[in-house]
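Continuing the batch. This is chain 6 of the set; chains 1 through 5 are on the previous pages. Same settings as before, nothing changed between runs. Recording input and output for traceability.
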Amino acid sequence: MVSRRKQWLAGIAIAVAARAPAFGQAESARAQLLHPAGGTAPAFEVVAVKQARASEQVYSLRMQPDRFIAEGAPLDRLIRFAYDVKSDRQVLGMPPWAASERFDIDAKIADQQVEAIKKLAADQGFQQYRLMVQSLLADRFQLNVRIERRELPVYALARAKKGPKLVPTAITPDTQKLLLPQLHFTAEGELSAVDVSMPFLVGWLSGRPDTGDRVVIDETGLQGSYDFALKWSPVLARVALASGNQASADASQANDDRPALFTALQEQLGLKLKPKKALVEVMVIEGVAQPSAN
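Output for chain 6:
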């Protein structure tokens, strides 16, 4: 589960990023929101939605072979998950209650869809869960969005001068089909990645305090997946040190010899972040309501 206070600094990959779908090579198509093929998203067979305790400061999103389960999830996090939103700059018109009202969701996948998803690659199957949550939001929350493209400041992830320091994943193709990519990280600035592609990595980098809430796009040209580790000094930990937050300050002081994320990427992974501008898809929320009854 992920606390709201640390939602950008601690968690697991399925709550923060997934491999991006291919939308072509043009720069204007590198930072897309998730769209269903043919314009129609798949749907869950049965959905139960109920309001959760608003006082809880944690939430979880879980994907099982035959269902999607959310516990204590705010609507804004469900929207970000469903559309693969990479930065707050990509969402306009979010109502205030979307961050405060929390919901428990139990959504069952039809047997034939379960079998179809099993035949997909891990990243493609993961996208099917996202698309079904899009349908859930439209049906139960009356979510209506308009997609636009706007030029925004972004970062491009590229190879550093001496080249990448990445090791191809040790997971075999047969095992890969059974697993989701794993990217675990902590508030203290330690990351461990298994079977992670560059699109997956830029999804994780996007929208973080360390990257100024910018979308990050992939310009590495690297194909395939990699296993790697990264250690850095998170921005929020340094802010906590300056503001006197003792718990976070202790963590920051313990790791004060670690570099900032930009430097860590270059020194430890052989990658760098370059500032630029690019056309990025944004979603404008035109309508949303409290969920309909079960």
